[in-house]
Each structure stands twice: as structure tokens, then as C-alpha cells.
Amino acid sequence: MDENIVWHNYAITKAQRSEHKSHKPAILWFTGFSGSGKSTVANALESALNQQGIHTYLLDGDNVRHGLCKDLGFSDEDRIENIRRVGETAKLMVDAGLLVLTAFISPFRAERDMVRNLVDDGEFIEVFLDTPLDVCESRDPKGLYKKARAGEIKHFTGIDSDYQIPHSPEIILDTSKNTLDQSVQELIAYLKQQQIIKG
């Protein structure tokens, strides 16, 4: 850190920003294999929360690679940097009082824990999409597993790159068993239980 860069304290705090909302700020961090349902569940949850007047923003893995992270590849180093940037962005959104949903494979525990440590206790909710790899591969919505099996894509999570299962996620969902509505309702119930949104 350059010694000439000094942190500037704002006159308005996160708590004051949150007072304008009908909910508390937090990050719902969806993690799991490609095809596990991260983006689908996050998108459906955001729609349900929007209908309740909750101020949300969804950060999706593919979308941020069109802008914020378009200079990054898929090596382990680039994946780590990708999550660092997304984590810092999500932290700013939490500071603004938003309920942030993020849908990223985010295969490494250390990076997920790094994001958890960026925000206050209770503001990081790890949602593990525990959908079996064979189910994810059978779905293959983008044809990526087929390319990875053919050697056309390197460093693909679950094929030739590791996925580190969360030790203690706040929520575990298996979209091979749950319907989309069941997953959304389970998430909403958790948010109400934690008093992040009103019951």
C-alpha cells in the first residue's frame, strides 16, 4: 500500500444507509460446480426478493468477465484474483446497504473465506450448491463439460481443477432434489430467520 494513500472516513455510515432499506445488508455467496444451479437459483431468489421491495444486486460469474474481470483467464491465479475483485465489489455494495447475491464457482475455500472476512459477522452467507458432479455434467448448459472432457478447456473445475467443498456453509442446496421454488423458499426462510429481511 502506497504511504500516500490514506483511508477517508465517510460522514454517513453503513448503518445509516441501511436505515433507508427494509432489510439488512448481506452477501449471499452461491458456490458449486458449473451447472449446479447457482445462477438459476440466485436469479429466481432476486426476483422473489424484488417483489418484496428488497434492494438487491446479482453479481454473476460470466457477466463480470465481460467487464470487471475481462482481463482474467481461468488459471488458479486468475480465479483467485477474480474472486478478490468480486469480493471487494460485493463489500462496497454491502456498505451501500444492499443485499448482494453472487453466483461464482469460487472453487477455493481460502478465497471464499477471504470474502467472508471482508464484511461483518452475519453478513456473509455461504450457499453451497451440493449438486452431484454427474448431474451437473449431464445438464452441461453451456457445453463446457463436453469441451473439458475433449481437452479443449483446461483448468475446468471438477474435471482437471479442484473444487474445495465448504466446511460449514450456512445453507446447502441440492438442485437435483429440490425444485427451484423449494430452493428459493428455503433461502427466504433463512433470511427471515436471521432477520435480514422481515418475516
From TrEMBL:
Q: Which residues cross the membrane?
A: none
- Which CDD domains does the record cross-reference, listed alphabetically? APSK (cd02027)
Arranged from A to Z, the UniProt key words for this protein are: ATP-binding, Kinase, Nucleotide-binding, Phosphoprotein, Transferase
Q: Which SUPFAM superfamilies match?
A: P-loop containing nucleoside triphosphate hydrolases (SSF52540)
**Pathway of this protein?**
Sulfur metabolism; hydrogen sulfide biosynthesis; sulfite from sulfate: step 2/3
Q: Please list the residues that bind ATP.
A: G32, F33, S34, G35, S36, G37, K38, S39
Root EC class? transferase
Q: Which reactions fall under this protein's catalytic activity? A: adenosine 5'-phosphosulfate + ATP = 3'-phosphoadenylyl sulfate + ADP + H(+)
Record-listed E.C. numbers: 2.7.1.25
In what residue span(s) does the APS kinase domain sit?
Answer: 25-174
Claim: Magnesium is one of the keywords in the record: no
Which residues act catalytically here?
S106
Q: Which GO terms describe its molecular function?
A: adenylylsulfate kinase activity
Give a short account of what the protein does: Catalyzes the synthesis of activated sulfate.
The record's family statement is: Belongs to the APS kinase family.
Q: What is this protein called?
A: Adenylyl-sulfate kinase
Q: Which taxonomic lineage does the organism of this UniProt entry have?
A: Bacteria, Pseudomonadati, Pseudomonadota, Gammaproteobacteria, Alteromonadales
